Amino acid sequence: MKRADVDQLRTQIQEPMRWFVREARVRTTLLVNRSGQVLAQHGFTSSYDVANVAALAAATHSSAHALAELTGSGRWMHLHHAGHRRQLFLAPFDTPAEQLILVAIFDDESTLGLVQLFFDRFSAMVAEIPALQATLDRSDADSFEADLEAGIERLLSEPPEG
Amino acid sequence: MSDVKQVTLELSRIPGVRGAMVVDAQAGVPVTAELANGVPGPAIAAFASALFRRSGQAIRSAGYGALGAVQLEAEAGDVVVTGNDMLLVVVVAEPDAQIGLIRMQAQNVAEELA
Fold it and tell me: Which of residues 87-116 of A touch B (CB under 8 A)?
């Protein structure tokens, strides 16, 4: 995805992201594409964390996709990991432009059911975003890393939201 | 699991009941459900578990011990939620249903599952 596309998308995705965080009561959330490019985030305070989680989310998605194909399970819907204090929800969804992956980390302020419920609505909202209505140009290998780093820096340079 | 399914089915057969579910209280997702068409089970399970948890916290904070049941009354019907920290019994009923009977049966089921 080109830098201009990402900027436009980030602007349009802010409101659905805020809505999801508020309604689902998640602590931390990240929206990436299948390449691990960060499109939006909430709650991260370190670029190192964002980059790591983004890369791991993309890798997890690829692994789960391969596992689903191997086992004849078809498309996987979501991955849920319940820890002692925090839980992880990771789910892919389609938009007209490309498939995106939402990572949400929550504690006992929320539940899997609430996160699932609001994820369904969030994904529908995001799929209607104008910037995601057309197939987007892919960045080449040389520019991808620079775009990724610049995107993370911009995301983290914004003041934290309520 | 068959017992859980059976009690859910029995609850759903009470006149005026539009849906009955056993819900994982921690995750807020249905374990078993018997629902009439149009009853959004996963959404009700998610909100019912959140409501039960919050109400339980409030009751405990007030020094009244563990929460027994929550009953929501609305124009289009009632929702009864009862259970414990592990499993909840959630019943969705029509406005003219015998809510006392439903509540008693739901609590019996919750005690059986405990």
Answer: 110-114, 116
The dihedral of CA A90, A5, A131, A97: what is its sign?
Answer: negative
| Start-to-end CA span in chain A (Å) | 29
Selected from 3.40.50.300, 3.30.450.30, 3.90.1150.10, 3.40.190.10, the CATH number assigned to the domain covering B4-113 reads 3.30.450.30
Arithmetic mean of pLDDT, B52-79: 91
Residues of A in contact with B50 (CB under 8 A): 110-111, 113-114
Length of chain A: 162
Q: Where are the domains of chain B?
A: 4-113
Q: A54 in helix, strand or coil?
A: helix
State the SS3 of chain B. CHHHHHHHHHHHCCCCEEEEEEEECCCCEEEEEEECCCCCHHHHHHHHHHHHHHHHHHHHHCCCCCCCEEEEEECCEEEEEEECCCEEEEEEECCCCCHHHHHHHHHHHHHHHC
Q: What is the pTM of this model?
A: 0.77
Q: Which residues pair with B88 in a beta bridge?
A: B23, B83
Assign 3-state DSSP to chain A and report helix, strand, coil percentages, each to 5: 50, 20, 30
Q: What is the pLDDT of residue A20?
A: 96
Is the model's pLDDT at A2 over the cut of 70? Answer: no
Q: For residue B28, which residues of chain A lie inside 8 Å, CB to CB?
A: 111-114
Q: How confident is the model at residue A36 (pLDDT cuts 50, 70, 90)?
A: confident
Which residues of chain A lie closer than 8 angstroms to B90, CB-CB? none
Given the DSSP bridges, would you call strands A38-42 and A99-106 parallel, antiparallel or unpaired? unpaired
Task: State the amino acid at position A99 in one-letter form.
Answer: Q
